[in-house]
Amino acid sequence: MDDTGKIRLLLIEDDPGDAELFRTLLRRGGRGASIEMAWASGLSAALDHLETESFDVVVTDLGLPESKGIETFMTIHGHHPDVPVIVLTGLSDEALALRAVQKGAQDYLVKGEVGRDLLLRSIRYSIERQKLLTEFERNLKEIKTLKGLIPVCAWCRKMRDDRGYWKKVETYLEEHTDASFSHGICPECLEKTDPQMFELMRRENPEIVEIAVHGSAGTWSRLEHREISVLLIEDDTGDAELIREIASETKGPGLVIENVTRLSSAIERLGREKFDLVLSDLGLPDSNGIETFIKIHTLYPDIPVILLTGLRDEELGARAVRSGAQDYVVKGQIDGNSLMRSIRYSIERQKLISELGSKLTEIRRLERERKNILSMFAHDIKNVVVPSAGFLTRLLSGKTQNLKEDLAAIRDGLTTAEYLLSNFIEFSRFETREYAPKRVPVDMVAIVRRQIEASRVKAGEKKIAVSSEFPGKPFLTVMADQAMLDRVIANLLDNAVKYTDHGGAINVKVVTTDNGVLVQVRDTGVGIADEHIPYIFDAFYRGTGAQKGSGLGLSIARTIVEAHGGELWVRSSPGEGSTFSFTLPRE
Fold this sequence. Notes:
The chain is an alpha/beta fold. The protein is 47% helix and 18% strand. It is built from 18 helices and 21 strands. Strands 2-1-3-4-5 form a five-stranded parallel sheet, with helices on both faces. A five-stranded parallel sheet has the order 9-8-10-13-14, sandwiched between helices. The chain has a five-stranded mixed sheet with strand order 16-18-19-21-20.
């Protein structure tokens, strides 16, 4: 839409007569934005138009020489997902209409059953709805940069909230988002756990089971032939009865309509009962105009709302859609079929928006988590670089008291900074393809021996004895990434040395199992309190001890082990030391 309010529309219609009728319909008198129409007689010509020109909306027939049915819409939407599409056809097919909306079409109009007012309203609302969806989709793309940062327990799959409490996924999401859960059993699980019941359901409801198994996301279809519950907010008894009569003429699922006459009564009913949709007049005894919708939508944003009024006000309708209403219909200009179409499409569109909204809420939470991680990393780097810079400044100014000690401090600081950066870079690779193990036959005992020898320097500084126990010959060979396993053993030994007191002991044990290998790193260190154990493998988590590190070593170790199909865990008691164990499959 340009600065003058003109709407640019692309009509895709192979019948010149129908195209001219459509153009004539747009030219008829009436209020509303002016529309500039371009015409394409085929799908390829339409795609060329869309590549070279800018359009606010596309209206397309489903039956074209080059493309038929839902694939026509899918091709357009696949190439230009941000352009709203209205499907126009001579086929009065509700199933096809609903499928188009599920796939992303903004509306579905039947030739010969639509007037100028309904067409203009559909065009304007489709543009406004697409703007909302495009904004959601743009924000959702950010989630791809946040992989690997969700605090989920690798064993029980609980999630840790901002206060450090571990909760079930359902509880966490219900507390942190507007989502809620209803539990059931999906067809795949039912088939595994109770094959007889699954076969019985397949025989009695073959279409529903087929949709549930092969439909979107493998979930139960919500488009079963069930009644749709509607809360009608209408204070005029005659108008309410008229709506009931119109609803009785509808095809498909029946409508169960509950009528209230005041907004306050509606809000009270919505608080204690579940409705699929709200159909509301804008002029009520206790509320008037757009504020009626705003109050409903603010309290119950996931319930689709269709506004019903006697006011032929296109601007009010467009404003309502921009605010979140799913549709706006005028009393006296709607029949049973158009009412049912509006209701069903509104429910489907609200489902899409609610799902996107929940994902957007999760993105914001993940963004907070990402910022916290970056802040902690920056703090760690600063803590080692700033002192080193101070020593270097003192050295350059000639004020150093002990040149050797200052140079050693600078070296240690930069070595620590390099270690922190190395760990952070390793951590950032978790979700990339390059982090996939490159499996080759690996001598597990040789790796452990090599890393034990590498750890003896730091262990010797604290007079820590490092011992080992290996199985008899032949040495165990596993299919694994040697560099990754080197990192796991090195991290576990580094952790053991760091938290073991002067004069302590560390033992590394390799045991052959039926399915592979078990490696244990046992120390006589400070141990880990029970309240810290659930978080010990979280990225950047540190206990309350005096030792400092990147907080990534154990997280990296577990990620590597799990990437190989193994498990990593710890058993520990304060003052008695810790035992970190991991398993790896033979292949």
